[in-house]
Amino acid sequence: MEIKNKTFLISGGGSGLGLATAQMLAQYGARVAVLDIRLPADSELNAGQESMVLPLQADVRREEQIEAALDKTVATFGPIHGLISCAGIGPAARTLGREGVHSLELFQKVIDTNLVGTFNLIRLTANRMQENAPEADGERGTIIMTASVAAYEGQIGQAAYAASKGGLVSMTLPLARELARIGIRVNTIAPGIFETPLLANLPDEARASLGAQVPFPSRLGQAEEFAALARHIIENRMLNGTVIRLDGGIRMGPK
């Protein structure tokens, strides 16, 4: 799919991986609807592309909020061609910790946001995409989910997070198989340790230590590198039903 003059919806687009992807798409001539529960300042979001970016505040878990966001996107930009789902949370808690057993409410919140929320967004957006006019090879849309290497090597304290991201990995192929009949591709990126707001509160020494665990390059990943892979997935129509690790070769230890 060509990016220029297409419309993309990005959840979690207010910061980190989602924001970098939104800025990249706008720079390549796309119209971008940025959906987030909290939106950044206009200057950070637009990056000189004011007419190409539509900020939308919504919770991916709320069907009515997503439908309203989709309605506004279509009314402003026209049909939606791509969805990049980056919204997610990553609290850590041990199943049996010093303060007691893992909160069931916290576990459910992580699953509801990262897994159920992603599926909610996909099902409602794909419903709109199926009405698009087919392009080359019959393509009507492309969807990218954001998992994590924790889906494969979840660490101590990541039971909820790893379960939610593992669900996205497992969902990739069946969604791709089902949506293939209407020309919608589904792929997933599984990032390693990236420089995102989730790590922003760590001391510099701690971030450097995490980066040193990466075989090569021995540093934290940059959001722009995630955006570059998203761009390639969008443009390469043979990529479908697959999960791509973007991690510098890291395999996470227990902690």
What can you see in these coordinates?
This is 3-hydroxyacyl-CoA dehydrogenase. The protein is an alpha/beta fold. It has one domain (7-246): Rossmann fold. It is built from eight helices and nine strands. The strands form two sheets. It has a seven-stranded parallel beta sheet, with helices on both faces. A two-stranded antiparallel sheet has the order 5-6. Helix 1 crosses helix 8. The longest helix is centred in the middle third of the chain and has 26 residues, at 104-129. The relative contact order is 0.15. The mean pLDDT is 93.
Summarize the structure.
By secondary structure, the protein is α/β, with parallel strands linked by helices. The protein has 8 helices and 9 strands. The strands form 2 sheets. A 7-stranded parallel β-sheet has the order 3-2-1-4-7-8-9, with helices on both faces.
Q: Which tags fit this structure?
A:
255 residues; alpha/beta; Rossmann fold; two-stranded antiparallel ribbon; 16% strand; globular
Tally of structural domains:
1
Name the beta content range. 15-25%
Q: What separation lies between the terminal Cα atoms?
A: 40 Å
Which CATH class?
Alpha Beta
Number of helices, where a helix is a run of at least 4 consecutive DSSP H or I residues: 8
The total count of strands amounts to 9
Q: What is the ordering of alpha helices and beta strands?
A: EHEHEHEEEHEHHEHHE
